[in-house]
Every structure is written in structure tokens, then in C-alpha cells.
Amino acid sequence: xxxxxxxxxxxxxxxxxxxxxxxxxxxxxxxxxPASSNTGVSDEQLMLAxxxxxxxxxxxxxSRYKQPIYGFFRRRVSEPAHAEELxxxxxLALLRAATRYQPRALFRTYLYAIGFKILRAYRRKxxxxxxxxxxxxxxxxxxRQDATESxxxxxxxxxxxxxxxxxxxxxxxxxxxxxxxxxxxLQLPLNTVRSRLFRARTALRxxxxxxxxxxxxxxxxxxxxxxxxx
Amino acid sequence: MTTTEHPLSPEExxxxxxxxxxxxxxxxxxxxxxxxxxxxxxxxxxxxLSVQMAVWQVETVPERSTARAVVxxxxxxxxxxxxxxxxxxxxxxxxxxxxxxxSSLAAVVLFLAIATPNLMxxxxxxxxxSAVGSLxxxxxxxxxxSGVYGHYPPSLKSFGPPSSGAPTENxxxxxxxxxxxxxxxxxxxxxxxxxxxxxxxxxxxAIQATPIEPGKGGYRHFSTNETGxxxxxxxxxxxPSLPVETQGLGQQVLGEQETARQxxxxxxxxxxxxxxxxxxxxxxxxxxxxDRILARHKGFVGRLSxxxxxxxxxxxxxxLRVPADQLDACLAALxxxxxxxxxxxxxxEVTQQHVDLLARLKNSRxxxxxxxxxxxxxxxxxxxxxxxxxESARVRGEIEQMEAEQQTLEHRVxxxxxxxxxxxxxxxxxxxxxxxxxxxxxxxxxxGFRTAFQSLLALLxxxxxxxxxxLLWLMILSFPAWLLWRRYxxxxxxx
Lengths: 230, 495
Description:
The complex is a heterodimer.
Chain A: H1 7-12, H2 43-51, H3 55-74, H4 80-97, H5 107-132, H6 149-159, H7 163-173, H8 179-186, H9 190-208, H10 215-229
Helix pairs in contact in A: 2-3, 3-4, 3-5, 4-5, 7-9, 8-9
Chain B: H1 10-18, H2 23-35, H3 37-53, H4 63-74, H5 81-92, H6 95-149, H7 177-180, E1 183-184, E2 187-194, E3 204-211, E4 222-225, E5 230-232, E6 235-236, H8 251-265, E7 270-280, H9 283-296, E8 300-307, E9 315-323, H10 327-335, E10 339-349, H11 351-377, H12 382-414, E11 415-424, H13 437-494
Parallel strand pairs in B: 7-11
Antiparallel strand pairs in B: 1-2, 2-3, 3-4, 4-5, 5-6, 7-10, 8-9, 9-11
């Protein structure tokens, strides 16, 4: 099971990202998207074609992004059904806004911005229901999710992070957004995104290895210290 | 490898790992990382962290989402209802939702069950009152009609207004078209005229008011005739119940009152009023003519005021009193003064009021006579005599007051009232000097400041009056509101 971005998404980027991690399978196409006439066409071109009335291009966009968007919601809400609903709502919002689409930014940034707005609305409603009607809050409950022990361990560690730091880290690690895209999405300065991301990674590292410091971690601490002195 | 100098910040190394550095910067950082063991460790650590996080995978999105979205697209983006359908159906079929809807419906049904009978009763009571009122209007209108045309109207339509032009014998314009049509406020009105049998008689009539939907629009049947008495289900309306002030009297008084009332039934006392608005060409001439008409019909002016302001027409407003039998002739003469813009007539039946007054008067006179007998025939302590005299004086006062009321009432019946308004056709004066621009500006400025000050004063007064109450409730409600707000914020943070 993979929910990372398909290869076509990365191809479509104006500035290709050089992820140094060659070991991860981020650039694989996990869905095994069926070959179609749109293969090789950028997301932005597909979206433009769709806004001009070509419904097949939406199918292609949907197949490219349904799993990343579902993963985006699935990691942030507790109920799989809710994640599915929010995914549908995101694509419905995309459908409704198609005629107004302008390719001023990457399509995926545009799509995640829609998803983020829908997520925030969902959280507001959940918080309201929780406050005024005593409904159970929709905070992710790792124990309810079927996963391996290591995944559970990672999730619990991520949940302990500061909310904004957590969001920055998750957008970077799972949604593969660039620093600039994260800054745009969260309305934060670029340097703040960078420092928060570093802080989140440091904190997460500490949480994942609470029993002892690795050599690399001690090196990280030394570098951090010297960097601060400089 | 040197580990003593780090020209790079950790964030920069992180940017290198994330591919966020520019091409030239990548080369220098790569060169440093190759030489520095600590930085190499950091790079490894960061990559390891990403690998660890990659363990957190989620399941594949259910296949049905794909199908629905594609369907939505194929249906030319009909706002995605096929997809939303699943959301709606899932939310709306939850037990909580069903229970909520069921309880709301139950509350609505309960409310309707309680409120509907009351509403229907209120409506029926209103319809019955309206029917009685309509019968009174018809009685008055029939009297007016007979005064003008010498007989009662042949049909209900004869009461109504003409389709165009002046009132005629077949359409006298005395009641509104709805009532003349025979249906009003849930009641059906039927009219039957009895032709005149003698030379002086005007004949008679009978009007029935029947509920169109018995039990829904009204319960009772009403009727009336030329005597002016109104009957509800055969019994005269208001007959069995007596006014509050007479209930304390003895049975003897009740008997007397009943006798007097029965005597009065044969000749109903009606205080008639009319309202007439006319537009005349020359006001002074019209006013002189009005005086002549009054003199001819033995009437008088009760009250009169005249006004003539700049920029508006001259107006005379008068309250005229004419003998009741002269009312129709007087009105006909007055109408010739100019163009009629409004006319209305009304008649208030004061028979019952008069009968009650007479009975009370008679009773008080009897009381006074008995008190005088007591004073004349019996001796006793001075204190008791004084008390009897005091009571006698009080009764005398009541008698005089009632006699005055009786006179007023009889005067109202014998003399009809005409509220007349004579307005002269407006002629705009060409020479009227308009205020100068400066004066208009000054006036506007003064008004503006005054309005601003008044609004400020009104605001201050509001806070002075309601401020303490608002403050009190603010203090009481702020704590729970703050608790809720904190809980809400926490919920958002957790989410």
C-alpha cells in the first residue's frame, strides 16, 4: 500500500525536486496507473483541458491524486470513512472550481490547498460538536488503526509534536511539498517553515529514540550547538 | 576529515537532504558533507528519520470512491450529487439523526394538537364578532337607505357600491362590496325585504347570518330585523347578561329594567355619525353655503377650525350637529358644495345603554326617596342622621350625573354628527420665495448637529439605563462562555 505521489506528479513540477533519499519508494507509481493517452501530460495541462470541458482528463487527475489526497486526510482524521468523505469533498470542490482554474501555481499545491481548507472546516465542525454537543472528538486514535507496531510508534511520536511543527513535518514527509509550498499553504514565512521543520525532526528523533542517543544524534547536537555559536 | 569547523547550519544540511538548495550550493554542501563525519552522520540521521516515518502507511482508498467520482464527472459536473449522496445518506441515517428528527416531529405534532383547537376557537369567535358587527352595519345602512329612498333596500346588492358613478337606488354604496356580496368572514348573509303595507310604513326586512362551515367558521346563527335587535340562535344578543353595575341591584330593579328594555326594543336608539370630505373650488363661498344649509336644517356647528398654511391648501374642519331626521337631507345638500373625496356613515346603537341608564336612574331615585323618608320619619342619634344625609347627598350626585349622561345620550341620538372637511383646490403660489442656499445649508448644518447630539445622547441614555443590567449579565455569562471557548480551542488544537 502506497499513497505517495505518482511519478507523473513529480514530472509535472516546474522545478524538479532532488530528493536525496534514493532508498524510499516515493517516485514509484504504487497504483500502477493504467497507461492512457494522457501519460506524460502535466497536471496543469490536464486541469486546463478539464476546465475547458474534457471530462476524461479529470479521470486521469483523479487517478493520479486520489490516493495521495486520501492519505493526506487518513493521517489526520481518525475514521477512514471520514477520510473518504473528505477526499470526495476535495474532488467535488475541484469540480466546482474547475471553470475558475488559473495555472498560476502547481496543480498539486492548488489541490492540497483545497484539501487543507476542507480539513480545517472539518476540524472546526468536529471541535464545535465536541464542545457544544459532547460528541467524541475526531483526533486520530492510533489504537483504532490497523498497522504494524513500528507504524504505531511513529504515529504516537508524531502526535506528540507541536501542532504546527507536526503539520509542517507531515506535509514535507508524506505530501512531499517543498518548503515554499508549505509556507504558502500554512501562511508562514519560508524561514519559519525551515526552522520549524528542523525542530520537528529533532523532536521526533528524540521521541523515536528515547532510550539512548545514537552517534549521529550526538553529531547533530554538536553541529546544532556550533551553528548557534557561529 | 575535519570535524572542528562547520561552515553550514543544520537547516542548510537539512535543505540539502530535502533537495531545497540551489545547484551551486548543492555542490559546496556536498563537498563539505563528504569531508565532515558529523555532517555525514546528520545526513544519515535525517534520511533514517524519513525512512522511519515512511513506515506510517495508510490503506488504499476504497474503490467505490473512484467509481462515484467518475460518474460525477461523466454527468457533466452536476455539482457532484451522486458522490454527495453517499455522504448525505450516511449522515442522515445515523440513529442520532433519526431520533432527533422523530423527536422534533413529535414536538411539532404536539404543538399543533394543542394550538390548533385554540386557533380555531379564536377564529370562530372573531368570525362571530364580525358577523354581529356586519349585521349592525346592515341595520344602520338599511335605516339610512330608507331615509333617502323611503323604503328598505330590495336586496343585499342594493347596499353595495355602484360599479361606477354616483350611488343609486340599486347600489346605494352604504356597505363594502364584500358584505354586499353576501359572504364575509366565514358567514353567509341572506336578506329579505317585507314590502310596505300602509302608507306611512317603510315595510320591514330580515337578515340571516349563517356560518358557511358550521363548526369551523363559526357556531352560532345570527339574525336581525328592522327593529335593530340582533338575535343569536333565536335569543336576543346581550339579553341574558346584564352590565356589571346593575348586577348588584335587587330583583325588582331587574324586573323594571327588563320592562324598560322591552319598551325600548320597539324603537331602537341609534346615534348616527357621518364623515364627509370635500374639495371645493372657493372655500369662502362653500363655508357661507354650509352655514345656510345648517340654518335650513336646524343644525349648528359643534366645532370648527380653519387653517391656511403656506405651501398647502386652505382647509376648514368642522363638526356639525343636525337633527337625526335631517341628516340625509343635510348630507345631500353638503355634497353639492364640491367634489366628494370621502364619505362614510356609521350608526351606534345605544338602546341598551339608554335602558340601563334609565333603570339605574330609577333605582337611584327610589333610593333617594327612601333615604328622604328615613330622614323625615325617624329620629335617632345625630351621627346616624348625618350618615343618612351623607348617603343621600351621594345618591343625589349619582342621579345628577346619570341625568346628564341621559341628556347627552339622547342628544347624540336626536342630533347626528357630521365630521366635515372642506379643502380648497390647491393652487401653488408662484411668488413663494424659496429659502436661500446659504440659509438651507445653515439649517441643514444645525439639524445635522442636533441629530448627531441627540443620537449621542440617546446612546448615553441607553447605557445609563441598561448598562448595569448588561454588565450584570455579562459577568454572569462570561464565565461559562469562557469555559466553552477554552474547551473549543482545546478541541481544535487536539484535532
